[in-house]
Structures are given as C-alpha cells and as structure tokens.
Amino acid sequence: MSDDVQPGAARTAILRAVRAARPAPVARPDVGAAVRRFAERRDGAPDDSALLAQFVAAARAGGSAVVEGTRADVPRLVAAAVPVARRVVSQVAGVVGLVPMPDMPHGLADAELFVCEAVFGVAENGAVWLPLSRLGERAAVFIAAHVAVVLDRRAIVSDMHAAYVRTDVAAEPFGAFFAGPSKTADIEQSLVVGAHGPKEFTVVLVGDG
Amino acid sequence: MPVATPTRRAALPVVDAHAPNGAPVDHAAAAARFTADEPRTDWHDGALWFVREKRDRQAASLPEWEQLRELASQIKEHTLSHLDEYLIRFEERATANGIRVHWARDATEHNRVVHGILTAAGSRRLVKSKSMLTEECRLNSYLAERDIDVIDSDLGERIVQLRGEPPSHIVLPAIHLKKEEVGETFHTHLGTERGLADPQALTAAARAHLREHLLAGDAALTGVNFAVAETGGFVVCTNEGNADLAAALAPVHIASMGIEKLIPRAEDLGVFTRLLTRSATGQPVTVYTSHFHGPRRGQEMHLVLVDNGRSVQLGREGFWRSLKCIRCAACINTCPVYRRSGGHSYGSTIPGPIGSVLTPGMDLKRYGALPFASTLCGSCAAVCPVKIDLDAQLYRWRQLVADAGHAGVSKAAAMKTTGWLLARPRLFRAAGAFGRLALRVLPARARRLAAGPWGRARDLPPAPAQSFHAWYAARERAGGAAGRGEGPGA
Hints:
Radius of gyration of chain A: 22 Å
Largest sheet of chain B: 6 strands, parallel
Strand order of the largest sheet of chain A: 1-11-6-3-2
Radius of gyration of chain B: 26 Å
Oligomer: heterodimer
Strand order of the largest sheet of chain B: 1-10-7-4-2-3
C-alpha cells in the first residue's frame, strides 16, 4: 500500500497497470446481429396476443397479480386489487391519491399503496420498465406495501434484448425493471414474498378493448 | 487510530473471513469438520443441488442459451482486452452524469475512500447491501473501528453479520444455516420468540428490524453488477429491494465495484440480464434490475473503482479470463466439493471453483490448497454463463502451487514417487502385480489403510485377473482380433 494520497495517483497507477497487463485484443462481437439470428431461429415473430399471453404467464409465475380492463376501469381495478389501502400515493391520472408526494422520501414510509404507469412490459420474464419520470420518487415503488402499475396491453416487447432497444436506460438518472413483489430465499431456500420491498405487485393491463 | 467507545452500536463481533494470521488454509481439514455432521452435509448438498436444477430448467428453456454464453464471453474478453480505454470512457460519462468517481488500488485504499466520503458528509450510519467486494476489502471492521455503524441489509448477510460469520456463499450468504439457527440468532439479537423457526415469520421480523435501519441510514453502499462504459451508469440486481430502498432514502449513495465489472454498451445488458439470474437462482430475471445514471435530487452519488489485485490477474496469461466472472455462483452450486464442504472451508471471500482460481493469486502460500479442493470434473466450466475455463485454470494453479513448493510434503512425495515409478516400466509392472496380489489377499481394513486418505471413505475395487499390459500382449500374440471387445476385466 503506497501512502501517497495525491489526487489522481491511484487512477494513474491503476490505468498504467491495466494497460501493461492487457491481453491480446479480442474483437467486440456483433450483439445486434446475434440477436437477429435468435429471432430467425424461432418461427417468425410472435404476434401481439402471443406476447401478451407470455407476459401474463411470466408475471404471474414471478408472483405478480395481473388484472385486465379498460382505461376507465383503472380506479375500480386498483381499488379491487388492493381493497384495504387508505394511504395511497398515486402517479396515475384518475386514481386518487390521498397522500401527496412528500418532499422527503422518508415521508412515504407508511404508504400502503403506490400506483404508477409502466412504459412497457417484457414477455420473457414478466418485468415492467419504470423510469424515474413515472415514479416521481425512487423510493415510492420500493417502500409501499403494495404496488400497482398500469400497463398498455400493446406495450409488450419479447425479451431483454428488445427492452434495451426500446428504451434508452441513460435518458433518466434512475429506471428499473420490476418483476413482481420483493422476495428472499435466504432462510433454508424457503421462498418468502415481501422481503424489504412491496409484499404485493399488481399489473393492471389496459387497452381500448 | 483509536476511537472513542461507541455508545449506540450493538456490539457485533468483527468478522475476519480469512484464516488467522495469514496461516495457510487447510481446506481438507475444514471440510472434514463440516462433513462430520453427515445429515447436515446431505442437507447442504441437496439445498445447492436444488438451485442447480432450477438453473438447468431455465437454461433449457432458451434455445439460444449456448449462443448467449458465447456472446457474454466475447463481450467480457473484448472489454478486458481494452479495459483501460473503457475505464477512462466510463469515468468521463459517469462524471458527466453527476457521479463522483474514485479510484482505489487496494482494499485499504478502498476503505479509506469510503470512510473519507462518509466523514465529509457527516454520515455515521451506513446501510450496506450485498457487495462481495466490501467483504474482500473487510470494510465492515475498518469502519467499525472508526465508529461508523454498518448494517448489512440483505437478509442473508444480516443473519451472518449478527452471528459474526462471513457469508459462506456469494448469492446465498446464509446457505449453511438451518432455520432453527436463524431463529436462535434472531431471538438473541432481534428479540423474536424463542424457538421461532418459520422462515416467513423470521423474514417478517427481519423486515421490521431492517426497515428501521433503512429509514435511519444516512449513507447507503451498494455493489455493482454491471457498469456501462458508453452511458456512465451502473446496474444493481436484487430480489429483496434492500439496495434500492437504502439508496433511494439515504443522502449519500456509494457504489463499490471491481474494475472488471465494466461492459461496453447498454445493449450488452440484454445479454447479461438474461444469463445472470437464470444461472444464479433459476429465475428468469431478478425482481429488481435498477439502472443508476445519476444521484437523486440533493443526493451525493459516489462510485469507487477498485483494483485490489485485478490488474495483476489480468496480466496472467492462463488466468485473466477468470475476470469475466459475473458472480452468479452457478459454478459454486454445481461443485461436488463445495456442496459437501461448505463455503467457510475455503477460507476466502469467494469460495468454490471461481474463488479457487481468483484467490490463489492473492497469496499462493496461503491459498495453495484451494486449487486442490476440486475433482476437476469440469461441471463448473459447463455451467459458467461467461464460459470461464475454470477446470483448466484450477489445473494450472496446481502446477504453480507445486512448483512453488506449497503443495504439502505428503502430496509432493507421493507425486514424486509416482513419477519415478511411471518412468520405470518394469518396476511399474512388478508393482502392479504386487498390488493385484495385495488386493486379493489383504483384509478389507488393511486394503483401505494402504490406500491412504483416498481409502477413508471408499472401498477399493476387486483386483483384475491380469494387467492391461499382459492382456494386450496376449491379444497381439493371438492375432489381435479387432473389435472382440473382451477387456482385461475382473
């Protein structure tokens, strides 16, 4: 351990060591081309209804509840999904939140239900993409006991490759894929739902149907 | 530097994951202590095999699984072969995103950087989510000595922290514990009812206990699963949500990462997020895959890039590919030796096959036993999502350990004798004849003793009627009827 703590000394030393240690150059693979080949191996692109069915099955397998309806049904569907919630924080027009978004995230500690819009869902794993602009506050979706997300049934991509094509993850300072309620299996491999984050996660699928 | 006696902190034992005083790790002796409890060993073996089977089902469900592994391997090898360029690009983009980037040559420097950030911010309560790097740097004890409260918020890590143990596994830190033991730990530290052993109830108690700490934390430290050079952001994958909750609440977020965690572009995340969790726990994806590209309003976000021996490993021709590791633990779950010896027997932060190729380079004398804690069956290399040639690297380390004279006296002597014997065909044939005779006439107990440690848990096979050499010679004399397929059998 060198005791020189000049700013930049560590950076210089690490970069120099890495440069000296570099193995022979390896070419960057063409990820896009490889992903196109995966798609070609399947029997054509799955249609919207197949993607939706795959998404619903994967979301349920991950512990999410999935309900369906129209835009106008959203408040009723959310209330039916989480009937006990009184302290509701909502980022969705039409769903009345009784608790305004506090200045400090700690104010969300006793939120019973958080409701927001998802941008799209991923068929292969049942995850939904929620960037900061839909959350309002990063902590909201992790701290509330229940979370309900509203998702347009046509906004489903097939897999994680398509997900990263669909969204620019760097466009906002925070964004996450959510695939259900929080979980742990740290005690004897027994699956327990509701580790630190939400205990229940509901996806409200909406469309014009 | 002595510090004032802490007033509030629960007195937690300080954990040292490594053998005391740098004494050589004796994996075989530690494994023998573990396997002394046979039912528990069987349970441990089964628990890990269950995870391995879940991984198999997920891998089989994707027709492109093997192509994904190849892609992931190439992306990582490409990045490592241009690592300095990618590090510079990452630093530039991350800084532009409002993330303060720090560099640390080794564990002490990492700990000093983290402590400096906490001191400057006036933070005294650090909520930490899972980070094997901070275990490697032994950050907890460093900060405890400086009067900083460190709370591990991952359930498994909190359990082992309360017990004063290091994690025994990199994904399932408390996999070595039975629920009754967790119940006792919680009874002692969290005041749960004596005898409570229901995982659901224990998790609920931990949730309430940790929720208080999460809300009270004035700094959060997370690990990093992937850092993206082109975007200057990083990704953290969890199932519990503890990392996100801590980072979303605390005024300071520190992310610690080894320099090998870089990948070039956001599109590469599509490859790695599909492989990571399927390989690790058999889920299609973690519950939370969080992308951080800047601090919350009013928050400080820091990222520490740590070398700590990685650049040295990068320069080792036969071993640099071990840096492709994405810490999924698939190799650990499948390893027949790990499953029957437990993570603590390796005496290193990272156990199992990947630990046995990463750790020896840190101190060959101390960790020389690790490459021998393997059957070289190759199962680790077969499941590795980034195709690290783990079995080949274990074999290479064995050569280096033996060359450096750390293989142990009896092993060295046995190898030397065997080599000497194999170089003398006549003598070898005589020894074979003697051996076949001994197998026939000696009582079973004596046979096992003669076989040395190998015979402790095994019966020797019945002696064949003749040696292969004799059988082959006889067959040649008889005109070598090809394909008769009659071996020299018993």
